[in-house]
Write a structure and sequence with these properties.
mainly beta; five-stranded mixed beta sheet
Length: 144
């Protein structure tokens, strides 16, 4: 989803969150059904661009993942904080994989229906953010 400020909306700076990738511990990409008894890995893909990004090298960004319950299950939220790598001559403009990945231990997210959202923020620059949301997902407990 477009960020604030939207990528391409001005020459100085823009941001966009383009995808959430979810994989359970068997390594299979699992966007809609996850096993509660397996570790879940999630990463957000976001892109930044603009004239000021070389000067933002080392700036902190925070990625938050929120499982919003759609039934009688507890909400779950986790976050990570990392630093931008935007120094010249090759500034990183797309962040994904290990740059934004969290590993949720097996059994942490309880079985139920959720809407998974992710957002990236810059703690030293409030107002700069981007968001992405998946459709409804189900966390299940597989039968032995």
């Amino acid at each position: 989803m477009p960020g604030q400020p939207t990528l391409g909306s001005n020459v100085a700076f823009g941001i966009d969150a383009t995808a959430i990738h979810v994989t359970d511990n068997d390594g299979i990409p699992s966007q809609l059904v996850l096993d509660a008894d397996k570790q879940i890995k999630i990463n957000l893909v976001f892109e930044i661009d603009g004239l000021v990004i070389p000067s933002m090298n080392g700036a902190k960004y925070k990625v938050t993942y929120a499982f919003a319950p759609l039934a009688n299950t507890p909400a779950f939220t986790t976050a990570l904080e990392r630093s931008l790598k935007t120094s010249l001559p090759h500034p990183t403009k797309v962040y994904q994989g290990a740059d934004t990945e969290v590993k949720i231990p097996a059994g942490t997210v309880k079985p139920g229906l959720y809407q998974l959202s992710a957002f990236v923020q810059f703690p030293d620059n409030p107002g700069i953010a981007a968001f992405a949301t998946l459709p409804v997902i189900e966390v299940i407990k597989e039968q032995p």
